[in-house]
Specification:
Oligomer: single chain
Distance between the termini: 46 Å
CATH superfamily: 7,8-Dihydro-6-hydroxymethylpterin-pyrophosphokinase HPPK
Number of strands: 6
Number of domains: 1
Number of helices: 7
Structural class: alpha+beta
Radius of gyration: 16 Å
Strand content: 15-25%
CATH class: Alpha Beta
Largest sheet: 6 strands, antiparallel
């Protein structure tokens, strides 16, 4: 049986240098490495600068998004993402902390993983619990994509028409729902 090809979106971010390589260059190298690890990279967003959260907690982030196409499972894609993060010095020591590279699988087509009930549980968690708790398994679509301008702005460059399979809104519509100041805080990185 041939698996159905799906377009997935990966969000990339970094705010710490790795081996004296600045975050923007680390993202470029990571995209190349993802392709080298067998992921079929499609569209690439512009790079954006985003303030660290919470404010003053560290250097600004560089964020981007890419699409990948293929018939790999979401678990196989996640394994590649974790391998590449590790190659670029990522250590999973602090939730929502500073990092040399963060690669998040935002969506895998219109898949809801593992179940709608489990997805809803994580989507509805209050922010103070989200900061401390991490799911033991992959949740798709990413349960906070609709809340994060730093993901949606780059994602609008590469998959503006992707429709959230639970919320029923496109990336453009999700962006329009965010506070304007959140969206304005995500600025294109100047060369």
């Amino acid at each position: 049986m041939i698996k159905k090809q799906r377009e997935s979106v990966i969000a990339l971010g970094a705010n710490l240098s790795f081996d004296q390589t600045p975050p923007a260059l680390t993202l470029r190298h990571a995209i190349r490495e993802l392709a080298g690890q067998g992921l079929s990279v499609g569209a690439e967003s512009r790079f954006y600068v985003t303030p660290c959260f919470p404010p003053g907690a560290g250097p600004d982030y560089v964020n981007a998004a890419i699409t990948i196409n293929g018939n790999l499972s979401e678990v196989a894609i996640l394994a590649v993402l974790h391998r590449v993060e590790e190659m670029f010095g990522r250590r999973r020591e602090q939730r929502w902390g500073m990092r040399t590279l963060d690669l998040d699988l935002i969506c895998h087509g219109d898949r809801i993983v593992p179940t709608l009930e489990e997805y809803e549980k994580w989507r509805r968690l209050p922010p103070e619990i989200q900061a401390k708790a991490a799911p033991s398994e992959l949740i798709l679509p990413h349960p906070r994509v609709q809340d994060r301008a730093f993901v949606l702005v780059p994602m609008a460059d590469v998959a503006p028409d992707w429709r959230h399979p639970v919320l029923g809104k496109t990336v453009v519509e999700l962006l329009a729902d965010l506070p304007p100041e959140d969206v304005a805080g995500v600025k294109p990185l100047l060369p």
